[in-house]
UniProtKB/TrEMBL annotation:
This is D-alanyl-D-alanine dipeptidase. CDD domains: D-Ala-D-Ala_dipeptidase_Aad. It is an enzyme of class 3 (hydrolase). Gene3D superfamilies: 3.30.1380.10. Binds 1 zinc ion per subunit. One of its GO terms (biological process) is cell wall organization. Keywords: Cell wall biogenesis/degradation, Dipeptidase, Hydrolase, Metal-binding, Metalloprotease, Protease, Zinc. It comes from Oscillatoria acuminata PCC 6304.
Amino acid sequence: MKINYILLFSVALGLVITIGSWQRAESVRIFDGLKSGEWGPQSPAVVVQRTPAIPQFEGENLVDIQEINPDITLDIRYATANNFLNVQLYSVPRCLLRTSVAQKLSLVQEQLQPMGLGLKIFDCYRPLSVTRKMWEALPDPRYVANPARGSRHNRGAAVDLTLIDAWGNELEMPTDFDDFSDRAARDYQGTDVSNQARQNSQLLERVMTQQGFISLITEWWHFDAENWQDYPLLDISLEEINEG
């Protein structure tokens, strides 16, 4: 048998060219994959999970202040009849605030303790339906928020409070809580408010504003979180909000 070497050489040359072309194409494909990250090294120990961005307020639930700082004293007036309406408005005596607001209030408590003082809270989160009842009784925007716009209390971003000594006694203040008179205003200069009461009110304002709270001119006991507008209005009863 005669071997046609020319034919064999032609076939071999064709195979070399074909394989070379395939290798070049595959190299280009792999290189492109490396550039795009498709062929990058995959570590099974590292799993990155991406979560969509969410509004700030959704990351801040209402929390019980005594779970954040149990040293803070409560006297939730609207859970009793000892308030300006003389009616119990809350079924449970709880102080609920947005997480960051509660944490800042805890810092105020910690700042006061070396002085032998502490905080006593009268009101925190307030359901919008309660604000409507208050507005019906006292439709004065100096003291009660118009429910058409809502209150900062309805957002869990406001607190009413006073100072107490180491034995739990309230420090003298210009008026009692929810005293809707000129004497409750921070700029009141009448002689029927003692210097001691005025100094105590100023101390409360100073320690609260140092943690970023905003005081209300007409009520010495009221303070708002500086970012209160970040939180939505709520109308959920205190007992419906899960504890813990």
